[in-house]
Amino acid sequence: MPQLYHHPLDPQSRFVRLALAEYGVEPELIEEKVFERRRDFLLLDPAGETPVLVTDHDFTVPGATVIAEYLDESLGETLGENRLLPETPEARVEVRRLVNWFAQKFYGEVSNWLVTEKVYKRFMPAEAGGGAPDMDVVRAARANIRYHLRYIGYLTAQRNWLAGDRLSYADLAAAAHISVADFLGDVPWDEDETAKLWYARVKSRKSFRALLADRVPGISPPPVYADLDF
């Protein structure tokens, strides 16, 4: 059985979990607190970041986008016309552009700030930066998420899915990052109905069920988080 080193509220890990579920792969989930800098984990990935996939053949694949590419190369054809990375170079460019948008821009402006301040700092020792959240950072993330929602709404108003006619890695990446903010109650769903409808479609997929069941000690998501008809 493959192993996935992850954190339940790490959006990059959630992207990979969604991708694996779409491929029908059920890994052993190993929760990793990256701020602990465990030696054995650093031996797997010197960068010390989740997610890290260890295959059945003990081959280590680190990083969300690297794992996504590896899965497409090794399993993509099994999905046929539902392949998560399209066949044509032009279509692949658009999917990769949007995956990078959420893995880099959204992560840097929204999800990393929210998770670090509202989740990780709860469990980090004071000498490592733990403690109360910096609410200025949280407020900045809440402000930034608004224009990302508008961009999602803009794209899905013109396309069936984020990157085109079919579900792709772009949708999984975006939904993974949005889901973390949703778990923490920081998505202003009343501001863009088109983005909300898109998210409801992704959220209703079978691959999303495990994410909706995630819980973290001391943090309860709002009722809307697991509601498919929110």
TrEMBL record:
Q: Does the keyword Lipid metabolism apply?
A: no
Q: What InterPro entries does UniProt report for this protein, alphabetically?
A: Glutathione-S-Trfase_C-like (IPR010987), Glutathione-S-Trfase_C_sf (IPR036282), Glutathione_S-Trfase (IPR040079), Glutathione_S-Trfase_N (IPR004045), GST_C (IPR004046), Thioredoxin-like_sf (IPR036249)
Domain (GST N-terminal) spans 1-79
- Give any Pfam family that matches: GST_N_2
Q: Which PROSITE patterns match?
A: GST_CTER, GST_NTER
What are the alphabetically sorted keywords of the record?
Answer: Transferase
- The UniProt record lists the keyword Transmembrane: no
User: Which Gene Ontology terms describe the biological processes this protein takes part in?
Assistant: glutathione metabolic process
Q: What is this protein called?
A: Glutathione S-transferase
**From which source organism is this entry?**
Methylovirgula ligni
